[in-house]
Design brief:
Order of helices and strands: EEEEEEEEEHE
Strand content: over 45%
Distance between the termini: 35 Å
Structural class: mainly beta
Strand order of the largest sheet: 5-4-10-1-2-3-7-6
Number of strands: 10
C-alpha cells in the first residue's frame, strides 16, 4: 500500500456489548472539517470469521467489486485470519457478517444505527476521489 491519494479515518468503538458493537467514524472533509458517522458491528467473538467485529488496529481499505454490496465497495486489506470485511449498508449487527455498517443516527438503547442508506451515499461521495483509505480502529469514549 502507498499513501498516495489516501484518506485517513478514525473509528472509536464506545459500546461493545453482547449483541452489537457501536462506534463513531470520523471522516475528514474539505467543506465541514469532519463528517461523523455511527457504526454497527458484531460483538467481539475472538475474531471468529463472519461473527466477530474487526480486531482493533490500523488498516488499509481498497475498492472491491462486491457481488453482494456492489462495485466499488470499500474492503479491508489484511485483517488477521479474515477476508471480505467491508463497509456497507446495515442497521443492526444481524445485517453484518464481520463487516461495518454505517448510519447517520443512533437507535434507542444503542441497538443499531439509522439512515444507513443515506450514510453510505454520503460516505461514497466523500471517498469518491480516493484510491484507498486508512483506518485506525480503537475502543474508548467519545466526547459528547
Amino acid at each position: 500500500m502507498t499513501a498516495s491519494n489516501c484518506l485517513e479515518l478514525t473509528l472509536v468503538r464506545f459500546k461493545c456489548g453482547d449483541r452489537e458493537t457501536i462506534g463513531r467514524l470520523t471522516v475528514p472533509t474539505a467543506a465541514e472539517g469532519v463528517k461523523l458517522f455511527w457504526t454497527i458491528e458484531n460483538p467481539w467473538v475472538d475474531n471468529e470469521t463472519n461473527i466477530s467485529c474487526i480486531p482493533e488496529g490500523f488498516y488499509y481499505l481498497e475498492r472491491y467489486d462486491s457481488p453482494t454490496h456492489g462495485d466499488g465497495t470499500w474492503q479491508f486489506v489484511d485483517v488477521p485470519k479474515r477476508s471480505y470485511c467491508q463497509i456497507h449498508v446495515a442497521n443492526y449487527a444481524r445485517n453484518v457478517q464481520g463487516c461495518i455498517g454505517l448510519g447517520n443516527t443512533l437507535m434507542e438503547e444503542l441497538s443499531g444505527v439509522g439512515s444507513s442508506r443515506d450514510a453510505m451515499a454520503e460516505f461514497d461521495t466523500l471517498t469518491a476521489d480516493y484510491d484507498e483509505l486508512r483506518m485506525v480502529i480503537s475502543s474508548g469514549s467519545i466526547p459528547a
